[in-house]
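Can't attach files on this board, so I'm pasting raw text. These are the components:
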Amino acid sequence: MALLAVLFAFGMLTACGSDDSSSSSSSEASSSSSEASSSSETEEADSGPETKAAFIMVAPIGDAGWNYAHDVGRQYAEEMTGVETAYVDAVPEGTADFGNYVRDFIDQGYNVIIGTSFGYMDDMLALADEYPDVVFEHVSGYKMNETNFGNTFGRMYEPRYLSGMVAGSATTSGLIGYVAAFPIPEVIRGINAFTLGVQAINPDAEVEVIWTSTWFDPAVEGDSAQALLDKGADVIAMHQDSTAAGEKAEAAGARWVSYNTDMSEFAPEAFLTAPVWNWGPRYVQIIEAAQAGTYAPSAYWGSMAEGIVDLAPIASDVDQGVVDQVMEAKAAIIAGDLHPFTGPINDQDGNEVLAAGEVMDDGAMLGMMFFVEGVIGSTG
Amino acid sequence: MTEASLIGLFVATVSFGALLYLAALGELLAEKAGVLNLGVEGMMAIGAVTAFIVGVEFKNPWAALLVAMLSGAILASVHGFFTVGLGAEQVVSGLSLTILGLGLAAYLGKDYVGLPPGAELVPVEWAGFSDLPWVGPIFFNQAPIVYLALLMGIAVSFVLSSTRLGLALRAAGESASSTDSAGHSVLGLRLSAVAAGGALAGASGAYLTLSITPQWAEGLTAGRGWIAVALVIFGAWRPGRVGIGALIFGGTLALKTRLQPFGVDFSPIILSMLPYVLTLAILLIISIQARKRPSPAPFGLGLPYRREER
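---
Top answer:
Structure tokens for the assembled complex are below.
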């Protein structure tokens, strides 16, 4: 009997083990949370202005990363006249919660719904059909309809390239560590753009990648950074949602390129810069279109010129000559004179992928599954 | 592969091993007394969040550790109340405890997500030892909770094997009715073991937020409580063997990402499964040996005790 209980217990345990790995493959930092832990600020529906936008987020907005950046964007849109916004955070993907919150918001008169996590995509598509008068915009997805459901993302590879330039100037060992979540095109594109930026300043430096197989597991992220530091890396970059890598870099006296937002307060000595999101202007655009009745769904992939992505301020101890070079490159990217993925580009094994002078098209970038020369690691 | 990388691997192995060992020792105590507590993950989460909150508010890491242990003990006592006090199904109650603990931790910690830590327990220097090659960084430059784990392992081992209390505790897990006949309080023994186990799980959680990754966010424990439960089976309910198992499981955790810089192309997902696979293998061995000799599991594990059913 006792052993039976243990066996049963173990069955549960392995079930949870596999559950763990499947949930970690979902987009961004999704973790289970109860309705009790989500919050929303709403006001009276009847006296409200004509356009009301509701934001639904997957993790607490206090995460300093992805969700925090979206909330900053929401507050930016709140400044518009005649517009009211609300948010609910910690809404898990793949449950009925998402639909319940959306219906609730629509009942209260909200006519713009913005979902900021990849896993909301199919729910949003269905809800958009159900409520044709409401504008739905999905961040990071690829599905859309013809009337009221579009998607938004940003060309993060542009500021990634710039952050690589800063990292390239900061390394003395010539080895830069990169702690990354999953080998998907978005992440690989970021690593490649970063590496090309590194090489623009420091042609001999290499970028070593560790895959963590998780968007959010601070212990593993931190230990991956530590492993790279142990190997001799003196700059750590990342495509993760926690600040753990930065804390390890700070403790080791190394430098750090964060992601999502300016995370300088978490590792003030180590922080160099960060490719960051700036959702506000895009949200204003969507809400304005909804207000004017001119919203047309699109697959929006905004650039640094449009302001949706940017580079955080560069640490004050970085050489002014480097800062000037980075700012020059930034101006050139914004002007359309510089594209991070311009040939000649070789893959890891030295095979030419893009001939000299050619610029990679969006399709190739969106499906990118190879590492450029100078990256150490495997694409999975 | 450089020497620094290899040393780093062992440093991480000992560190993760201590994290798992503390939680597993707590589970071992409860199970030795006859109570299966599947709420380890929840108790770790509560320990992690309360340690972080106390750190931020009062800037004292030791107070943070103490509060984390108390919180773990209190949460464990909820399980004790239902299973020992009321004789409720231990598996159901334990699973509920995990869900309750994770939810409560998320709720309590909501305003502390993303805050810089207020207090940390940083690695200690052992004069003369920390600078030794290899053993210095691996054993003599760890965070204080690592040494706490070692001390607790020795203490639990000693109490269980060499004291009257330990004998009574084991008896409560093997045969509650004879323990009762001998004049010991099965209720008291089991409740204390469960609470003490909760305190150790709380300390394990505190190690996460005070040393390993000094920050709070939901999902920080990332399933490590379940590995601790498996570890007790893996170590055949013996503190020493559980300790060796903790180092092995801790090693797989550290290897999960560290194999990559060694240039070994091996899926980190397979390594995540390894502790469970190893535990299954041990379970298989135990089952096969069960024909020849008794299972190492406490005989009364999972069975509620009611005096009238003697």
